[in-house]
Amino acid sequence: MPPLAAVPDLEHELDTLYALPLDEFTKARNDLSARLRKAHQSDAAAEIRALKKPAVVAWTANRLARMRPDLVRELLAAGSELRNVQQRALGGRAAQPEVAEAAARERDAVREAVAAARDELGSRASPALLDRLAQTLRAAAVDPEQAPVLAAGRLTDELRAVGFGPLEAVPPRRRARPAAEQRAARKRAQTLRAEARRLAREAQAAETAAAGAAREATRLREEADSRRREADAAATEAAEAEARLERS
Length: 248
Known about the structure:
248 residues; mainly alpha; 9 helices; 75% helix; elongated
């Protein structure tokens, strides 16, 4: 008996598999494996059966790769550029501004991709999920093995960046200061600290005085208002007395 017809396009089948909602992945994977076995493609069937169901974050990244391939292409290009610039910088062939520019491009690409995922997921986009998604996207973007997997939308695991990070975050090595310079710097720091304490005490005293002055001003204002009311009442009483005298 001749073997059954092979699965027409396994790559297309895999694209369809990884595009499914997570709760449909396992059954669809097993069905595809069974079809391959029936087609006498035992090795392929075993490989498909062994595929892991994507983690939620990986599935989100895969969905982003399908819904917004433009953003993922920019992310991968930015990650590749950053990796190359970092490697050249380690060999002394790239200056710090170039590294900073590449790192900024990579950060912007991750930010835009995460924002698009937030819009796509709606209420399901928790801060924790988006933070883990950003880490996964950043790790995939600078990893030459994971970048094409993300581009194909077939990640299965969350990723974390390993190895050296953006070199702009690494402080340059400073030359050791001479002992005399260190003593002068330490004395200067002590002087500034004492000056800061003195100014803080003066500020506290001024605030206390201002509060007291404000209370005194309020008391004097209330007293002036009271005297004004008494003066108005006396003037009114005097005017009435004068009017009575003129009538008598």
